[in-house]
Amino acid sequence: MTTWLITGCSTGLGRALAEAALQRGDNVVATARDASKVEDLTAAYPDTALALPLDVTDADQVRTAVESGTETFGGIDVLVNNAGYGYRAAVEEGDDDDVRTLFNTHFFGTVDLIKAVLPQMRARRAGTIVNLSSIGARITPAGSGYYAAVKSAVEGLTGSLRKELEPLGITAMVVEPGGFRTDFSGRSLQQSADTIDDYAATAGRRRKENDTSHGTQPGDPAKAAAALIAAVVAPDAPEVLILGADAISAHADVLQAQLASLEAWRHVSESTGVDE
């Protein structure tokens, strides 16, 4: 039986994934900053669900969650680093403390959990680490520079991690969702307190008061959870799993534009070699 440790299970994709894994008979360590929001899972699945408090920026809670999950179920087979939130601001508008907190949550929290589970995965020569990113890391919208940056950091880390772990029988993968009907663009979305008028037509258009996307996103979290599980259990799990037709289209557009730019500037790039 597979044991999952999933962060950020109170709502959204984390919640949908926890429910889907439990429904298929797996064990789930369901975590949230407020554990009371996931205790209904233990009521519904008393033998296979463990609800724990976890603020991923708290090193003691990270260690306790991994130890408790391991003690209860015998080990962590799949770690899903899902906890996080959106942050919008023009780069010049971003508050330094807000940005540090964003990186502590999305990047350093992910790193701490990876380091906490890897010793047991290496000992078993088995395991999967899933790190949630966003299509924003590819399309880098105006007003989402800091969020795109932290998710790009997660993707870069995961790419190297995958190469380090493959010889040990462990898989690491990134998930890039597009727009899904979760709280991400609503309750979970934060933004800078200060605004600069010069960015009203760019970053300003993505501020919460100007964004009408919440509740109209095309993606179904339950279907995203099913797709993620299918990728995790597949023998050839992808390095990057794109979720949503909107994300596929945006990703393809970025790749085509990058390739066109690469070719347009090839002569300049290739002119930099040492003359023999």
Structure, described:
With 276 residues, this protein is of the alpha/beta class. Helices cover 45% and strands 16% of the residues. The chain has nine helices and nine strands. Helix 4 runs parallel beside helix 6. The longest helix is centred in the middle third of the chain and has 29 residues, at 96-124. The radius of gyration is 20 Å and the shape is globular. The mean pLDDT is 94.
Provide the fold topology.
Layout: E1 3-6, H1 12-23, E2 27-32, H2 39-44, E3 49-53, H3 59-73, E4 78-81, E5 86-88, H4 96-124, E6 127-132, H5 136-139, H6 145-165, E7 170-177, E8 189-191, H7 221-233, E9 240-243, H8 245-264, H9 266-269
Parallel strand pairs: 1-2, 1-4, 2-3, 4-6, 5-8, 6-7, 7-9
Question: What's a concise summary of this model?
Answer:
This protein is an alpha/beta fold and 276 residues long. It contains 9 helices and 9 strands. It is 45% helix and 16% strand.
